[in-house]
Specification:
Rossmann fold, binds NADP nicotinamide-adenine-dinucleotide phosphate
């Protein structure tokens, strides 16, 4: 049997597919979820089909740095072999978390960064980390000033895209610092999930005209599943391909500046 895998947002569309596939492959799964009821129903459905599966649920709210720290304390000492930073959100409007961070950045970036940094000492030497990014990353840029957006800088998709791009840059810097780890990026494409509801008047229209053309969660999980079983490092998994991280994202000095600024903000 292979080692434990931690999946954030394992109660969601893509996360639940990955949890099921990992359990089917005989891997012990830790579902790191903020909504225990939703997580339990996903776990129960998997167990109904795979009665021998080893699946635990631990609470994790990525919008709270205290919750991230509590999660890491609760994980136990047994090393684990993979972390899938899958959870994500697109806030409709500007709001701050209890830590004073903009919510989209907190959930898609600061929470996963803190989680990953705190978990590294508990990882097997060549553990895999897969970070979920988005095709929206290619349309924005991010710098130190973007990490704490002011209300006037906020836009629903723009802030989400910048948070995902910050996560991509964090992954590249982490790969430089921890070359033993197999750190890869997964881009699911546009997937038929809650994530594509914008909470706007046009949602019902989009449900008819747009949603049917989006990928299924099963298909959207493909790049992450490939990354989670790949021997590769520092690659970008999208569709059925595994490529080098696109050159438009190569800027080690910027990655380093963001790393340093992030450490200050989350007091690492
Ligand atoms: N769908 C797309 O088109 C698309 C495209 C590019 C990238 N992605 C990325 O793919 C990943 C999975 O998205 P999905 O499409 O499967 O969406 P989803 O079904 O909405 O799943 C999102 C998951 O994140 C969890 N989550 C949200 N806020 C959280 C928080 N504060 N703390 C902990 N967990 C939290 C959700 O928990 P609850 O169940 O409690 O809400 C849910 O389990 C996300 O990172 C997303 O950005 C999606």
């Amino acid at each position: 049997m292979q080692g434990r895998i931690i999946i954030t947002g394992a109660s969601g569309s893509i996360g639940s597919v990955v949890a099921r596939e990992m359990a089917a492959a005989g891997r012990p799964v830790v579902m790191a979820c903020r909504n225990p009821r939703k997580a339990e129903s996903v776990r129960d459905a998997i167990l109904a089909d795979l009665p021998g599966a080893e699946i635990g649920i631990l609470p994790l709210d990525l919008a709270s740095l205290d919750s991230v720290r509590a999660f890491v304390e609760s994980i136990g000492t047994e090393p684990f072999e993979a972390l899938f930073n899958n959870a994500g959100t697109i806030s409709k409007s500007y709001s701050l978390t209890s830590d004073g961070l903009e919510n989209t950045f907190a959930v898609n970036y600061f929470g996963p960064v803190l989680l990953t940094r705190l978990l590294i000492p508990r990882m097997a030497p060549d553990a895999r980390i897969v970070n979920m990014v988005s095709l929206t990353c290619r349309y924005v840029s991010v710098d130190e000033g973007s990490l704490l957006p002011a209300p006037g800088d906020f836009s629903q998709l723009g802030t989400y895209a910048r948070a995902k791009l910050a996560m991509l840059r964090f992954s590249m810097e982490l790969a430089r610092r921890c070359p033993q780890l197999r750190i890869n990026l997964a881009d699911p494409g546009i997937v038929n999930s809650n994530m594509i509801s914008m909470g706007r008047w046009f949602d019902p229209l989009a449900d008819i005209l747009f949603r049917p053309f989006c990928k299924s969660p099963q298909k959207g999980a493909g790049p992450a599943l490939a990354a989670l079983s790949s021997p590769e490092r520092n690659r970008y998994f999208v569709g059925k391909r595994c490529t080098a991280i696109p050159s438009r994202f190569q800027d080690p000095y910027l990655d380093l500046r963001l790393w340093n600024e992030t450490e200050k903000i989350i007091q690492l």
